[in-house]
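Figure S4 source data
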Amino acid sequence: MAQPLVFIVILNTNRRADTCALLASLVKTTYGNYRVLILDNASTDGSVQAIRTSFPDVQLHELERNLGYAGNNNVGIGEALAQGADWVFVLNEDTILDPECLSELVAAGESSSSIGIVGPMVYHHDEPAVIQSAGGRLGRYWQSEHIGQNEVDHGQYPATREVDWISGCAILVRRDVIEQVGMLDERFFYYWEETEWCLRAKESGWRIVHVPAARIWHKGVQRNYQPGPNVTYYATRNRLMMLARHHAPLVVWLVAWQQTLRTLASWTIRPKWRAMKDHRDAMWQGVWDFVHGRQGMRTV
C-alpha cells in the first residue's frame, strides 16, 4: 500500500542557516513519500540561492507580499493541495526533526479516519531534554496553555493522546480537514491562528492528537524568551477575535476582559511597570482594533 503524500510547508524570512539546517535534518527522515515547499518572504540574506544550490529538489516559491504567518503559509497549503497532498505539514524554519518524526506522525494520523490534526513532542533546541510543548489545551476560561512546558522529559507523556490544539511550529493536517474547515484564518495574521484552526477542526468532529514518539527541537520560545510589543498586540487582539469567532460563553468573556483591563491598569498606574509602556500601548491598540473590527497586519 502506497504511503500518503505529505507536503512539508516551510516559511523562511531571512533565516538561511536555520532553514538549511532544517532541510538537512529532513534529508535523514525515514518517511519516503514527501515533498518540501519553501515559501520565501522577501529574504535578503541569500536564502533563495543557498536553498536552490544545496537542496535542488526542494520547491521554492518567492512570495510577492507579506500576508503574515497565516496568509503566507496558506499560499503553501493551497499549492500542496493542488499537487495532491494527503497531509500538509506546516513547519517552522527554526526546527530540527528526528529521523523518525514524520513516520511517527503519519502512522498516528492514519491509524484512524477521525484523526484530523497531529503534532509532535516539541523540545527546546538549547535544552534538548526539556519540553516546549506536549500539545496544547484550552483552560476553563479558554486560556491557551502548552502542556508540559519547561518540564524535563522523564516519560511523563508516554502515549499518543487527544489534545485541544497543536503548536504551530509543527502541525500535520489531513487534507480532508482543510477541505472541510478551510485553511488558517488570515485575519489573525500572526498568533493564535493555530489554536483557532484546531478549535475549528474539533468543532467539526475531527480529533487532534499529540504523538510523543515524534520528536522535534525548536529554537524559538526558549525559557528566557521575552516577546516584543508586537506579540502583545496580536496576543490581545487575536484572543478576543477567537472568542468572538467561536461564540465563547459569557463567563469566558468576563474573565478575558477582567484580565486584560487589570493588566492595562497595572502597566499604566504602577511605577514598577514603567518599562512596559510599549507593551501597554500595544495592548490598548489590540483592544481598540478588536472593538473596531481591524484585522490582519498591525498598523502603527
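Figure S5 source data
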Amino acid sequence: MSMAMEARSAAGREFAVRPLSPAMAAEVVGLDLREKLEAATRQAVYDAFVRYQVLAFRDQSLTKPEQIAFTEQFGTLERHVATNRGGDIPLLHVVSNLNAEGKPSGKVKSTTWHSDKSFRPEPSMATILHAVVMPPDGGDTCFANMYAAYDALDDAEKAALDGLRVIHSWELSQQKSGMRATEDEIRDAPPMRHPLVRVHPDSGRRCLFMGQHASHIDGWPMADGRALLAKLEAHATQERFVYRHKWQAGDMLMWDNRCLLHRADPNFDAALYPRVLHRTCLRGTAPG
C-alpha cells in the first residue's frame, strides 16, 4: 500500500491521508477544521477514521466553540462525569496538568490504559483532542489496537472469551487508582455491563473492549476476573500493537474508542512544563 493517499470530496476539496505506523493512525493534511465540511468530505474523513482508527489533523487552531462545532458534524456530544467539567463550556473538557494557580502541578492524569466513557450505557465512539499548550518534548499519547490484540489470540483463547461480559464502573476504576468517586459521580455513572469482545458497528471486526474502567468479569469472583483482565491488557498493550503519537503544534487527534485503548505518557517534566489540551467526546452505541 502506498504511504500517501489522496482523498477528494465531491465538492472538490482535497486533503492528504498518510499512514503514520503499521499498527494504525494516519495524518490528515490540507483541511481547515474551522470550516464546515461538505457531506462528501465529511464521509471521506469518517471512512479514513474507521480505516486507520487514529487521525491526526495537522496545523489546526480552533477555539472551544469551533471544536464543538467540528465534533458535532460526526454525532452527538457526550457529557463528562458530574465533577469533570470544562468550565465555561461543559461539553468540552480541559485536560491539563495545571493547578488552581495555573502553574504546572507535576501530576499527569489518564496515564493508565482506558477507553473513554466505557462506563456509559453507550460508550464513546470517538474522542477529539486538540493540543493547546504542550511541553517541548514528551507528553505523548499512546494507543493500543484492540483489533490486532484480539486477532493475535489463538482459537482456544478466543473461544474462552466468547460470551463473557465485563462490569465497567467509574467508581471502581477510581478505587483502582487510589481515589474515591463522589456521591454525585456514582449516581451519574452507575456500573454498566458490556461484552469483553465486541463487534465494531462500522467495520464488523471483533475486538477486545476493556481498560481502566473495566472492573471485573460479570459472574466471576472479583480476583479471578481482574486477573484475566490484567492478563489481556498486558497482551494487548505490547509494543507490536501500540502507536505512540508525538504531538506537533496544531495537532488535533480523533480516535476510535470502540477498538482502541489509550493513555497519556508522563515522559516530560510535569512540574516545569504545562500540558493543556481540549477534549470533546462523541456518544457511541451500546456494544454488541
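DSSP finds seven helices and 16 strands in the chain. The domain at 5-283 is CATH 3.60.130.10 (Double-stranded beta-helix).
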